[in-house]
Design brief:
By secondary structure, this protein is of the alpha/beta class. Helix content is about 40%, strand content about 25%. It contains 11 helices and 15 strands. The strands form 3 sheets. The protein has a 6-stranded mixed β-sheet with strand order 5-4-3-6-7-8, with helices on both faces. Helix 4 packs across helix 11, helix 5 crosses helix 7 and helix 6 packs antiparallel against helix 7. The longest helix is centred in the C-terminal third of the chain and has 23 residues.
Length: about 375
């Protein structure tokens, strides 16, 4: 992921895919033109990289010209397009092939046709590396198309966002959801995870999504997902991961303007972690870190036994049950620790001390993400 000015962009088209698209365009055009010497016209500024790489690949003699049009301001096409630099040679009876980096609304293309209307060329053909069929609003024929893409703003390989990004060898797509802080918060029973989640969500304006709370809400309110989950629970079966993911997706959708999310109680397996990554990717976002509160077992046992005196929970009053819960936590977390460590996203934080001290340690990790 890259940041240009105030926007974030994610990888979209690799250099290898661009090269393959160029090979396709070169082959199609060379076959059509035959032995004739064409004039390739690049549209500046965007097509400088495309034109250079294209001509290097073209297997026969050719000529190259450039025209410059002002057509973009920020993220949107400008309504006013001006011809800034014109042609410098007579193109009468010549085959002219326009090399465009991208065609979306077709406004630039309309101006190109206006420019060449009186040039008496033999043929005017249009070749574009990228084409947005959803955005195209003109009737001009596009003779050669490299890659069709959705109607989203892209940068790289000659394309810019307010003059940045043209130099990138790959193409990046704008993230619809801009920078978010998404955390997976872990901690063994008694580590104070719930308490810290409350502090963190307030400090960073995050949405705390507790899987247990989400399940209880859906079942209590008899949502379609809640009833589906209950049907498995009533039969003593595990709720499928997809049902849980769909519930989490609904929670994320409720809070599309959030600064980020704290996921609590999910994932618990590698498969669930991958599903969560896929879910966040559909939101143009990602998990930034798995943060695990680390507390010595004996401290945990002491905390839970003390809590059991007032919580009313039977599993907080039996030491053997407490130790089994802690053991189960480590067995499950060890797998996820490896998963997130492989992505350099695992952070262990000392969970012993005052609530304020632990919050400071967690904040130090988050502030450096």
């Amino acid at each position: 992921m890259i940041k240009l000015h105030d926007k974030y962009f994610k990888p979209f088209v690799s250099a290898k895919e661009i090269d393959a698209a160029l090979d396709k365009l070169v082959m199609e055009i060379a076959n059509d033109v035959g032995d004739e010497i064409p004039v390739f016209v690049g549209i500046l500024n965007g097509s400088f990289m495309l034109t250079s790489d294209f001509v290097k690949k073209y297997p026969k003699p050719c000529e190259v010209q450039f025209i410059k049009l002002a057509s973009y301001e920020g993220l949107k096409s400008s309504e006013d397009i001006q011809r800034l630099i014109g042609l410098t040679q007579d193109l009468t009876d010549r085959t002219v092939i326009i090399l465009e980096d991208i065609i979306d609304t077709g406004k630039t293309l309309a101006e190109v046709h206006r420019i060449f209307k009186n040039e008496k060329v033999k043929a005017l053909k249009i070749a574009t590396l990228f084409y947005k069929p959803e955005a195209y609003k003109k009737d001009f024929k596009l003779h050669y198309i490299g890659i069709e893409i959705p109607d989203k703003f892209i940068v790289g390989y000659g394309l810019d966002y307010d003059n940045l990004g043209r130099d990138l060898p790959e193409v990046y797509q704008i993230k619809e959801t801009q920078h978010m802080t998404n955390l997976v918060l872990f901690g063994p029973p008694g580590a104070g995870k719930g308490t810290q989640a409350e502090f963190l969500k307030e400090k960073y304006n995050l949405i705390h999504i507790s899987t247990g709370d989400v399940f209880r809400f859906n079942i209590k309110n008899e949502t379609a997902l809640g009833m589906l989950a209950k049907s498995y629970i009533d039969k003593g079966e595990l709720v499928p991961d997809q049902v849980t993911i769909d519930m989490l997706n609904a929670e994320v959708e409720k809070n599309t303007d959030a600064n980020g999310f704290i996921f609590d109680g999910f994932p618990r397996t590698n498969a669930q972690a991958k599903s969560l990554d896929e879910l966040m990717d559909t939101k143009d976002s990602a998990i930034n870190a798995m943060i695990a509160l680390e507390v010595d077992d004996e401290v945990l046992v002491k905390r839970l036994l003390e809590r059991g005196k007032t919580s009313g929970r039977a599993d907080d009053a039996d030491e053997s049950i407490i130790r089994n819960r802690i053991k189960e936590y480590y067995n499950k977390t060890a797998i996820l620790k490896d998963y997130y460590s492989a992505q350099n996203k695992y952070y262990g934080v000392d969970g012993v001390g005052s609530i304020e001290d632990i919050t400071k340690r967690l904040s130090a990790v988050i502030d450096n993400l």
